[in-house]
TrEMBL record:
Keywords: Heme, Iron, Metal-binding, Monooxygenase, Oxidoreductase. It comes from the Bacteria. PROSITE patterns: CYTOCHROME_P450. PANTHER family: CYTOCHROME P450 YJIB-RELATED, P450, PUTATIVE (EUROFUNG)-RELATED. The lineage of its organism: Bacteria, Bacillati, Actinomycetota, Actinomycetes, Mycobacteriales. It comes from Nocardia aurea. This is Cytochrome P450. Belongs to the cytochrome P450 family.
Amino acid sequence: MTDLQTASDPYMLDINGTNIPAEATLLRERGPLVPVVLPGGIRAWAITTPTLLKELFADERVSKDTYRHWPAFINGEIPLDWPLIAWVSVRNMFTAHGADHTRLRKLISPAFTGRRVTALRPRIEQIVTELLDELAAHPDEMVVDLREEYAAQVPLRVITALMGVPEDLAPGLRVCVDEIFSTAPQRDPQENFAELVGMLSMLVSRRRGEPGEDMTSRLIDHRDGGDRLSEEELVHTLLLVISAGYETTVNLLDHAIHTVVTRRGLLARLRAGTAGWRHLIEATLRDRPPVANLPLRYATVDMHVAGQHVSAGDPFIAAIAAANQQLNPSGPVSDEFDPSRPAVEHLSFGYGPHYCLGAALARLEAAIALPALFDRFPDLGLAVDPAALATLDSFISQGHQQLPVHLTRTPALRDER
Ligand code: HEM
């Protein structure tokens, strides 16, 4: 966010994600459809209200297919080292429209039904217990980065288990996925993408040689059993599942833990049952959406939207953080956790045909991981001033770079939480 922007200029999104909630408020104040500038000077329209977001996400004239509906990309005007290149150039359900989207989504949606996700509970509980044991093995008084050692590890281990990723591939995959979610990346985006695809191709060849009960092996069956899935679509679908499955849930856990440790008395209420973990999870999703701004959709025809002329080919970015602010009954900019309001509405998992396939899995992971963490470490507290926590370098991914905590507290450190 830059202070020097005037309301008549297109809004330049802060690639460093310094204060996403404040930026969301500024966007909202500019109206439901705001001209914005993405990295590289690319113009887009930010959708900032829940009503318009739902309307456009359900509108067949609005597509996610970059290869058919974004002329700037088709004409080669988008450089391959553009920081958001992976978001628009993948070939999987995320960038598919209409019948193609249905075909690609159908291949993995059976893995995410309520029944299949519920069946993962024992595995998730086992992963959580292992991680808590690893944390408990640290010396007392050690400052632990809980984002790295817990918030990231829960979804990472769950998704790699689900996909049958061998242990030696997981760390490398993770580095590349982190880079995709950064809007101020440290590495060349094109090289990063190529490396990620290379590792996932290696995963495919290993599972081809040694199939298992995992999602990768099942997708290979679809690919090899007919022509419904190209090799590129197979690899890029794995890329989607690993990145969507990990990078988002880490932010949910990060912010939910942050909420508990920074709200006096909240943990006591959660443990006494006068506040609910599920409510905390939904309120966290609303107030700190893990995907704060979601790239990209395209107008396939000229459209009149919220009083503005949108030309065919214009891109939209969904300002989910801004839209969610309007859904907060405690006031648009409040992030106070109010347990007296159990129903929480938000758009953090999207809306319409592309609605998040992993929503039930993310909620289950959080519902297991959060109470288990605070049961094991009821005195857990931040080891730094909350104001000192740095945010991720991203306007897409909303989280902290680190969450340094004391797992146990000496009497001197103990407060009245
Ligand atoms: C808190 C955690 C999560 C958040 C906030 C989140 C958010 C989202 C959002 C906003 C979309 C919509 C994209 C669009 O409309 O363009 C989406 C799609 C998707 N998500 Fe999630 N997600 C989360 C967890 C997961 C998990 C755990 C998985 C899988 C293991 C997953 C897999 C997917 C997939 C495959 C899609 C694409 C669906 C499509 O294009 O049809 N997500 N997610």
